[in-house]
Amino acid sequence: MTPVDIDLAQQLTRTIERLTADFAGVFGAETVERFARETFDTLSERATVTPFLPVFCDRFTRDRLTALAQADDLIAKERPEVLYVCVHNAGRSQMAALLTAHLGEGRVNVRSAGSDPADRVNPLVVTAMAEIGLDMSAEFPKPLTDEVVRAADAVITMGCGDSCPIYPGKKYEDWDLSDPAGAESLEQVRAIREDIRGRVEALLVELGVRVGA
Question: 165-176 burial string, b = 16+ CB within 10 Å, else e?
Fold first, then answer.
């Protein structure tokens, strides 16, 4: 085992210990460890920048455990939950999630995922969002998992086909959007961004969430 592998293993252990303490009374240590190790293995298969892997693992495991607790009614939902799903979680769903969080101003919780996640967010998308003051530099593509679908009140798909499971009692929509992965210029990505912004504003109104910014 290399020094890098040893360090990652130690950081994973610390993540498990921290999350076990944070979710005490909700989930047992075995559940937390299983989710953390599964998340670490999944993300490490696609990781391009190893130093950020422990941070991504901590964030995504925490979010998955929160979603599972919400889905199983172990913790209460304080606001509507929206999930955006596209194929690579590197463009459309990332923009939609960040715009929803921005326009919802804390009145809606939002997640995004990909049916076949890429290894990084599309750089043109990061630039297009930075133009309107939204920082996407810390975001990373995440795989679609069952618990985040179960926790969502609204599931918005963007070209991921039948890979998103259907559960009763949820709002499902499919947005027919161009994929930034095929964009040849920043102008094209800007147009996609503004298309998404309009759809997000309409969705928030439909969910009864006041639109800000």
Answer: eeeeeeeeeebe
